């Protein structure tokens, strides 16, 4: 199927994924934008799964202090290269995760950190399993996987701290 270049550009603007991948997604979905986005999301999850074994020695520490000055969050997010760590996409992801932590106040980063016998639902207390506060159709892990697909590098939330007065 021949895909309209304007659709490819639109999908690229909405997702930030390469033009070639957007074109392929639109070809696979026969020009349907919603199906193309689903295709890209599944592809992003597959790409992220392949990259989980890669070492993440770079990254940044992002902070957020609520306007009241009574709540602050500090999060460490790691990636593979300094080039990606200095990029706007990575910085934006770190900031979004800070805002999410401030709003939802998870207790752990991942389910493996939860002590045995804890009765609480992991999707409520684990950061990566929580629905993203700005779009509850995505979890934080899906948000991270989307950035992994964009950057081509493994991205890991290492740790976070919440300060509250």
Number of strands: 5
CATH topology of the largest domain: Tetrahydropterin Synthase, Chain A
Major sheet summary line:
3 strands, antiparallel
Q: Architecture of the largest domain, CATH level 2?
A: 2-Layer Sandwich
Task: Give the strand order of the largest sheet, numbering strands 1, 2, ... along the chain.
Answer: 1-2-5
Q: List the secondary-structure elements in sequence, H or E.
A: HHHEEHHHEEHE
Unreliable runs, pLDDT <50, ≥5 residues?
Answer: none
In total, how many domains does the architecture comprise? 2
Provide the structure class.
alpha+beta
Global outline:
elongated
What does this structure look like?
There is one protein chain. The protein is an alpha+beta fold. The chain is built from 7 helices and 5 strands; from the N terminus they run H-H-H-E-E-H-H-H-E-E-H-E. The strands form 2 sheets. A 3-stranded antiparallel β-sheet has the order 1-2-5. It has a two-stranded antiparallel sheet with strand order 3-4. Strand 3 (131-132) and strand 4 (135-139) form a beta hairpin. It starts with a helix and ends with a strand. The model has no long low-confidence stretch (mean pLDDT 89).
Describe the secondary structure blueprint for this structure.
Elements: H1 5-15, H2 19-28, H3 33-51, E1 58-65, E2 71-79, H4 82-85, H5 88-104, H6 122-125, E3 131-132, E4 135-139, H7 140-151, E5 155-164
Antiparallel strand pairs: 1-2, 2-5, 3-4
Helix pairs in contact: 1-2, 2-3, 3-7, 5-7
């Amino acid at each position: 199927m021949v895909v309209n270049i304007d659709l490819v550009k639109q999908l690229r603007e909405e997702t930030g994924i390469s033009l070639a991948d957007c074109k392929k997604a639109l070809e696979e979905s026969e020009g349907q934008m919603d199906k193309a986005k689903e295709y890209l999301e599944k592809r992003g999850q597959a790409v992220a799964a392949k990259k989980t074994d890669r070492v993440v020695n770079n990254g940044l520490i992002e902070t957020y202090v609520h306007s009241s000055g009574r709540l602050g969050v500090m999060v460490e997010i790691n990636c593979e290269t300094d080039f990606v760590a200095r990029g706007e996409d990575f910085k934006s992801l770190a900031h979004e995760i800070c805002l999410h932590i401030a709003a939802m106040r998870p207790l752990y980063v991942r389910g493996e950190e939860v002590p045995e016998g804890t009765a609480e639902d992991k999707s409520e207390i684990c950061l990566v399993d929580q629905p993203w506060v700005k779009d509850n159709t995505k979890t934080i892990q899906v948000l991270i996987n989307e950035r992994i697909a964009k950057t081509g590098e493994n991205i890991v939330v290492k740790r976070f701290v919440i300060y509250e007065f």
